[in-house]
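Weekly structure sync, notes
Attendees: PL (lead), two postdocs, one rotation student
Agenda item 3: pending single-chain targets
PL asked that the sequence for the first pending target be pasted directly into the notes so everyone works from the same version. It is reproduced below exactly as submitted, 119 residues in total.
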Amino acid sequence: MPQDMPPVGGYGPVQYKRNLPAPGFRPTTLLIGMGAVMIFGFYKLGQGIKEQNEYAREKMWSRIHLIPLLQAEEDRDLVRRHLADQAREKELLGENVKVYNSDRYVRPTFAVTPSNITK
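Predicted structure, written out during the meeting:
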């Protein structure tokens, strides 16, 4: 029996690959999308940091402008306490006794203690 031979010119090509589309986006599309999201996020982060810095600057300047007012209030309170102490000393001792050897004003220090101590 004679052997079968291929036809003249050979057989046609055999399709063994599957031509299916890749699922999802292409990697370049994903990278571009992620980059855009990251750039937007960093932009918003920068805007937030600028806003926080502006709030901190505003807070600092408001405190700086309030310092004279608070100092004046504290000075008025110290004068009131000083005059009350002098009146109390005069009532108890009969005259004002100088505690210090000089006439220089020494700012008093007060320690506020609670009236009731709970354990």
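Discussion points:
- The CA atoms of residues 76 and 82 lie 10 Å apart.
- Residues 27-93 form the longest helix (67 residues).
Action: rotation student to compare against the earlier draft before next sync.
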